[in-house]
Structure formats: structure tokens, C-alpha cells
Design brief:
AttH-like fold; 13-stranded antiparallel sheet
Length: about 400
């Protein structure tokens, strides 16, 4: 387990890691681990608005960059990409208990490289992996929500980019078998069919404790549809200047299991969405935050859509997304085929947050209203943000059309 401690320099340096957050401590910093002076080397990318939200628009010389010429292959790309600066494995789930009351969970593992990898010139290969190498910073977030209760925990660790099988690592990811972990927080494959993808069947376990007691979940996820590549062959552009990420999702999970909240274990079921993304410069320097939607529609279709504030052709917002048919066929979306307009706001932990949205897809004849189920879903982590469940309805009739999750940063 991680040691409990407080080092402000680490928080300052690791705040960059929250860049991942999303697409990045008290009750929100449940546990961390030693980092020596490594965090100080990251402070140059925490430059606020001048470098994009959370430093994500900072120059990334020496790292590999995402592009439309990069191919995504499975199962290899389920694992880490240490030649890229940042990366995450991001899971959200809309659940309900036996009384059909809505609940929600989030679990995310973030990776950030401390410096670009330097190849072994003489060997013409990747750098040699040493047993005690700690060239990556890892961060994990978990959240559990029910009604007006919203519990959050955060952990940090250091580790190698590619875990060695003979060495115990506090955090890391392996592609085959797929396991993503930080301490005892763990997302792992249960797939035993050689013909299936290693992400087809997963188990998620995480538990934390704060001043209100213990909370956590143990869930099983089974995919009912294919993996989905966003953008152009998996390259998701994030600004008119060309910054972006490699991005794919598994949006077709059915979930069952149990959650633990306030000393009570509750059986739950529902649906989940896993995002996989890696980049070295996600944003342009002018982009101050984003509003990111992952929606399960009652028709069986799925919708991913985001609005990046700034970075458009005329210094306006940058819109993008994917319309995903029930069979997994993807239609890319942009500002000409998608609109996202905030309609109402509310206070969340002292921040003014849009909690009701209008989303239109003219080509799909969809006019939707998206409403946060509760405003108090603020994630009081190293770099704070809002993440919570939403309801989807027809904008004119109010008829329910689905549910999903919304992430908002930079508010």
C-alpha cells in the first residue's frame, strides 16, 4: 500500500498529471507515494492558461506525437505508450441499485513520463529497463456517487514504463494479460477466449476511506459491441492547429456487481464506457478547458462529443465527436454536424458549472437536452474538475432518450 504523507512539491508537480484528466489531498488525497525530487522537473508544464488547461498545450519536444498516420492495433495498444508524454485508462459507469435508484462510478489511471525516452544508440533499441527504474508518474482517481453523496479518492505512485515480470511494481499497465493497477485499485481482464479481445471481459476493484468511512466497488464488465476508434483511424484532433491524441473507446459494456457506501454493500447493474487516450501535446496553448460527453442512447447508439473552449479556426470553440451506431460503425462529427450549447448553470464547490445543455445532430435528426443529475459532482483532486452522471431527453417533448457521463474542466 502507499504511505500516507503530505509533500506540497509533489502535489505541485503531479498537478500536471491531472492534465490527463481527465481527457485529467484530505478526503481527495487518499494516498500517495514517495517521489524524491522528480516532481520538480514537471513544474515547467503547469503553466495555466499560457500553456493550455493544466499545461496540456505545452511544447513536448523529444516525445512522439499523435497523428493520423499512426495506426492503432489491439491488444498491443491496450498497454502503455512510454514514448508519449501522457496517457489514461478512463472508466465511467451509470448504475442503479435494486430499488432502481441511479448511482455512478468513475475509475481512472493516469500515466505521465518524466522525460522523453532516450534510445540506446549502440543497441539501436529502447532504453534498457532497470528493475528499480521510476521514469513514469502514475495517478489514479476513483469516485462513487448516490443521490447527494459524492465520494472521491486520489492516489499517486512512481513506476517503470514497462513493468518487469520479476519485480513488484506499485503501479502500471500490461497489455497481455490486460491489467491496470495502482496499489490494490485494479482493472483486469477476465477474458479466457483466445478469439476475443482482452478488454471484452473486465473486473474492476477499488476501495478507499475518508472521514465518512469506507467506500468502493467490485464490478464485472462484459462488452456487447466492438472497440471504437475516434477521429481519423484513431487520431482525434483537438484544435485547429492540429494538436490531438490517439483515442479509442469500449462504449458497450454491461455491468454487474456491488458497491460499498457508508458501511452498506449494495448490488448494482448498468452500463459503462472505457476511454483510452494517449498524447504528448493534447491541446493548443489557448485552450482553457473542455466539456466532454459520453452518452448511452436508448436506441442502442452511443455518442461521444466534446467542446474545447478555444482553439477553433477563428479563436472560437473547437467541437468534435463520434456518432456510434449500435453495431459499432462510427461517423466522425465536427462543428458542421454537431452543436453544444450550455443552457443553465449551478454552483458546485464554489464554481459556476453548466448543468444543462442542448446538443443537436442534424444529420441524425436529434435534438437533445442533457441534464446533470446532481450539481455536486466536483472532484477535489490535485487539479480539480467536475465529473458526473447526466440524463438525456428529447429537447422538445422531454421524453427520456438515454444517460451518460459529463466531464468539465477549467471552471
Amino acid at each position: 500500500m502507499c504511505k500516507q504523507w503530505n509533500l506540497n512539491p509533489l502535489r505541485r508537480g503531479l498537478s500536471v498529471l491531472c492534465l490527463l484528466l481527465l481527457v485529467a489531498c484530505g478526503p481527495a488525497s487518499e494516498s500517495k507515494s514517495e517521489s524524491g525530487n522528480s516532481a520538480d522537473s514537471l513544474t515547467d508544464v503547469s503553466g495555466g492558461d499560457r500553456a493550455g488547461f493544466a499545461g496540456l498545450g505545452t511544447s513536448s519536444k523529444g516525445y512522439t506525437h499523435a497523428s493520423s498516420t499512426t495506426s492503432i492495433s489491439f491488444p498491443e495498444d491496450h498497454g502503455p505508450h512510454p514514448d508519449f508524454r501522457i496517457e489514461w485508462w478512463y472508466l465511467t459507469a451509470n448504475l442503479e441499485n435494486e430499488n432502481r435508484e441511479p448511482m455512478g462510478i468513475q475509475w481512472t489511471l493516469f500515466r505521465q513520463a518524466q522525460q522523453p525516452q532516450v534510445p540506446d544508440v549502440e543497441r539501436g533499441a529502447k532504453p534498457k529497463l532497470e528493475p528499480w527504474a521510476t521514469n513514469q508518474l502514475w495517478m489514479a482517481h476513483m469516485a462513487l456517487s448516490h443521490g447527494d453523496r459524492h465520494r472521491v479518492a486520489e492516489r499517486f505512485a512512481r513506476g517503470a514504463s514497462e513493468p518487469l515480470p520479476s519485480v513488484a511494481h506499485q503501479a502500471g499497465v500490461t497489455a497481455q494479460p490486460f491489467i491496470a493497477w495502482l496499489d490494490d485499485w485494479r482493472l483486469e481482464s477476465l477474458t479466457n477466449n483466445s478469439a476475443g479481445d482482452t478488454l471484452d471481459h473486465l473486473r474492476l476493484t477499488a476501495q478507499a476511506e475518508d472521514e465518512n468511512g469506507t467506500f468502493g466497488y467490485r464490478l464485472e464488465l462484459k462488452a456487447e459491441g466492438p472497440l471504437v476508434r475516434h477521429g481519423i483511424h484513431g487520431f482525434s484532433q483537438k484544435s485547429a492547429d492540429g494538436q490531438g491524441s490517439m483515442y479509442y473507446s469500449q462504449p458497450f459494456y454491461r455491468v454487474s456487481g456491488e458497491v460499498m457506501l457508508d458501511g452498506e454493500r449494495v448490488a448494482v447493474r448498468g452500463q459503462a464506457w472505457l476511454d483510452r487516450e494517449w498524447s504528448s501535446q493534447l491541446l493548443s496553448a489557448s485552450q482553457i478547458g473542455w466539456d466532454w460527453f459520453s452518452l448511452h442512447l436508448d436506441s442502442g447508439a452511443r455518442l461521444m462529443a466534446f467542446r474545447l473552449r478555444g482553439g477553433g479556426k477563428n479563436h472560437d470553440d473547437y467541437l468534435s465527436g463520434s456518432w456510434i451506431k449500435p453495431d459499432g460503425e462510427v461517423m466522425p462529427l465536427d462543428g458542421s454536424t454537431l452543436t453544444l450549447v450550455p443552457l443553465a448553470s449551478a454552483d458546485a464547490a464554489g464554481h459556476r458549472i453548466p448543468v444543462r445543455w442542448r446538443l443537436t445532430l442534424p444529420e441524425q435528426s436529434l435534438d437533445l437536452e442533457i441534464t446533470a443529475r446532481h450539481a455536486n459532482r466536483w472532484m477535489n483532486t490535485s487539479v480539480p474538475y467536475w465529473e458526473g452522471a447526466v440524463s438525456v431527453s428529447d429537447a422538445s417533448s422531454g421524453v427520456p432518450r438515454g444517460e451518460g457521463y459529463l466531464e468539465m474542466t477549467g471552471y
